[in-house]
Amino acid sequence: MHAAQLKARRRAAAAAARDLGRLRPVLPSRRTPDGMPLLEVGQVYATPFGEVFHPVPCEVVGQLWDAEPFGLLVIEREQIGRRTCCPVCAPGGE
Ligand SMILES: [Zn+2]
Prior knowledge:
By secondary structure, the protein is α+β, with helices and mostly antiparallel strands. The chain has one domain (3-85). It is built from 2 helices and 6 strands; from the N terminus they run αββββαββ. A hairpin with a 5-residue loop joins β1 (30-31) and β2. The radius of gyration is 16 Å and the shape is elongated. Bound molecules: zinc ion. Zinc ion is lined by residues 54, 58, 60-61, 86, 88-89.
């Protein structure tokens, strides 16, 4: 393969990763008593490498919080990129 092709392929891979949405977590304004962030209107839960987002604190979110609290982020809904809605949050789609 030519260097130019390699370069193009690498650029495409980087773009794909970006499309998943570079996460810009917001500082949650409210938390539960044990510290879990709560969503405001227009916000969803996401994880740095997850391909889904969560519009509600479903049981998956609870498990994420238990397993890795720092991996559970709150982002603005328009920042979801190509993440898809969690099937537990919205069975059958949104
Ligand atoms: Zn969910």
